[in-house]
Write a structure and sequence with these properties.
It contains eight helices and twelve strands. It is an alpha+beta fold. It is elongated.
């Protein structure tokens, strides 16, 4: 009685029943229900089911000659990358911070509409060079030799200073290509006579007013320049500039210019295109200013034809040179 009461129930345990059909032949069902699945295991199938490759299909086809460039001179030059510092001379961070504060306190002038006489003077190159403030020009001389030529001489103790013309060479209100429907070009030339040492240099460029008088052109808003001590170009960049040309040397004549043209957009619209260029020894190097939008400072503000631009010359240390403003054209 006791043995019968605790005897196991008939049939397989529940874990077996949930897989096997409910029939009287439990043993047969158990054997068939837990048989291995038909066919080879998956690891076998994934290789055997792939169509075999012929020897010619086992590797990619041979590379053709056009896939390689044997003559690297055919490649375009790599883009000039922005630098944090110059390899030659660098202003202090305090000077840069003071200049940023100065620019915040002195917003750019709005474009002016010149009279016909004033515009004609600028076209003829009849500019006056503004004397820097007295604290910045202790060892500094400016001499006008002709209506379009000036002589500049500084002592080796001269600190960073910028020299601007009294009139713009580009008036946004009257010279803008979107208004005139024709290109407009500005330029001027320096003739270098002396560079005292490695701590002396000349920067040649353009800038809008007002501009911090104790800073070189190209370092701040609405300005660009090529600096002669390291040959780098600066576009609203207070850092280390970008590689451009070789350093300036005595005896060289260097022309700096900008060309304003239009480039078509969709729907019969156009936009301004600005090219900066420098000519020396018969060779011209240029860069597209509107491609400098990755600059880390103020981008291309003021340089796309929207601001009046003045010839801007920066000096530091002991230098001597002539500035020549040739008539337009």
């Amino acid at each position: 009685m006791t043995d019968q009461h605790y005897a196991p129930p008939p049939g397989p345990p529940p874990s077996y029943r949930q897989h096997a059909p409910t029939t009287n032949n439990a043993k047969a069902n158990n054997n068939s229900d837990f048989a291995p699945p038909p066919g080879p295991p998956p690891s076998h199938r994934q290789h055997n089911d792939i169509p075999s490759q012929s020897p010619t299909e086992a590797n990619p086809p041979p590379y053709q000659n056009w896939m390689t460039i044997e003559d690297t001179s055919l490649l375009p030059p790599p883009p000039a990358l922005p630098e944090d510092t110059s390899p030659t001379n660098n202003a202090s961070y305090d000077s840069a911070a003071q200049a940023h504060t100065w620019c915040t306190s002195h917003p750019l002038y709005t474009p002016s509409t010149p009279s016909a006489d004033i515009h004609a003077l600028a076209q003829k190159g009849h500019f006056i060079l503004d004397q820097p403030p007295p604290p910045l020009a202790k060892s500094f001389t400016l001499t006008q030799t002709t209506a379009t030529k000036w002589h500049i001489r500084t002592h080796s103790s001269q600190s960073d200073v910028i020299i601007l013309t009294n009139l713009p060479s580009y008036f946004a209100a009257t010279d803008h290509p979107l208004t005139t429907h024709r290109p407009f070009q500005i330029s001027y030339t320096i003739h270098i006579k002396r560079i005292a040492n490695a701590n002396s240099g000349i920067a040649i460029g353009f800038a809008a007013k007002p501009y911090p008088p104790f800073r070189l052109p190209g370092w701040h808003r609405a300005s660009l320049a090529v600096h002669g001590d390291d040959g780098r170009r600066f576009t609203n960049d207070p850092w280390g500039g970008r590689e451009f040309v070789d350093a300036f040397k005595p005896g060289q004549s260097i022309t700096m210019g900008m060309t304003f043209t239009t480039t078509p957009l969709a729907a019969n619209a156009s936009t301004i295109k600005t090219t900066a260029w420098l000519t020396r020894n018969g060779r011209t190097d240029e860069w597209q200013v509107d491609e400098q939008r990755d600059q880390r400072d103020e981008g291309v503000e003021g340089l796309m034809g929207e601001a009046d631009l003045y010839p801007a010359i920066g000096v530091f240390g002991g230098v001597e040179f002539e500035v020549e403003f040739r008539p337009k054209g």
